[in-house]
Amino acid sequence: MAEYTTVSIPKDLAERVEGTIEGTSFSSTSDLVRFLLRSIVVQHQREGELTEAEFQDIADQLRDLGYLE
């Protein structure tokens, strides 16, 4: 069985995510976050090591979504 850890996000972002996932196949904020992180990791594992520019692009996208300050 998989082990889990907790990731904290701001409450206002969690509320926005909950509104966003209504009517989708995602049953929770955690489901969406797992999907997004897995997608990013898989994409970059296929492409090899991340360049600084690619890392910055991901960080900018996560910042725009409210995951980073």
Describe the structure.
The chain is mainly α and 69 residues long. The protein has one domain (11-65). It contains three helices and no strands. It has helices at 11-21, 29-47, 52-64. The protein is globular. The mean pLDDT is 82. It comes from Haloarcula pellucida. InterPro entries: Ribbon_hlx_hlx. This is CopG family transcriptional regulator.
- Write the H/E string, N to C: HHH
Strand content: under 5%
Q: What's the pLDDT, averaged over the residues?
A: 82
Radius of gyration: 13 Å
Q: Using the alpha-carbon principal axes, give the shape.
A: globular
Low-confidence stretches: none
Q: Give the termini separation.
A: 33 Å
Largest sheet: none
Protein name: CopG family transcriptional regulator
Organism: Haloarcula pellucida
Q: What's a quick, concise take on this entry?
A:
This protein is mostly helical and 69 residues long.
Task: Give the tags.
69 residues, mainly alpha, 3 helices
SSE arrangement:
Layout: H1 11-21, H2 29-47, H3 52-64
